Amino acid sequence: MKLILVSHGHLAKGMKNTLEMIVGHQDNVIALSAYGEENNDFKTIVTREIESNSHQPIVILTDILGGSVNTELSKMVIQYEDVFLITGMNLSLALTLVTYAGTFDVKNISRIVAESQKSIIFMNQAIQQASEEEEL
């Protein structure tokens, strides 16, 4: 599996850096900062990566639903087989994707996304609830 992180600004590069702090260097992960000085044509770079890695699934992780990055890359899902697009980039999701040893298909990726959504917690509420449970 090839993981392509794409975001507005430097979020994708920061995500890759943090990811590699935890799991070590990842040759199968690339990060693109769209609309910056270096990756103005992120769509061409993503297309090149997809075409040069056609022997493996490609997972593209973008920063925000409805953003121009995600909108542009949505076309890749229709154009290429074994290309999966997920939006709402977070570290839990990226870690799960790079450490996952199973088959990358719609069913498994849907499960991975659902699990990563559980890692988004409003801590004030969780702490309050734990405090109240302790008092009982």
Polypeptide structure, described:
51% of the residues lie in helices and 17% in strands. It is an alpha/beta fold. Helix 1 (11-23) packs across helix 4. The longest helix has 13 residues, at 11-23. The protein is globular and about 60 Å long.
Structural class, judged by helices and strands? alpha/beta
Number of helices: 6
Order of helices and strands: EHEHEHEHHH
Work out the number of β strands. Answer: 4
Fraction of residues in H or I helices = 40-55%
Q: State the end-to-end CA separation.
A: 48 Å
Going across the major beta sheet, what is the strand order? Answer: 2-1-3-4
Quaternary organization: single chain
Overall average residue pLDDT: 93
Shape: globular
Q: How large is the radius of gyration?
A: 17 Å
SSE topology:
Elements: E1 2-8, H1 11-23, E2 29-34, H2 42-52, E3 58-62, H3 68-79, E4 83-87, H4 91-99, H5 106-117, H6 123-135
Parallel strand pairs: 1-2, 1-3, 3-4
Sum up the structure in keywords.
alpha/beta; single chain; 136 residues; 4 strands; 4-stranded parallel β-sheet
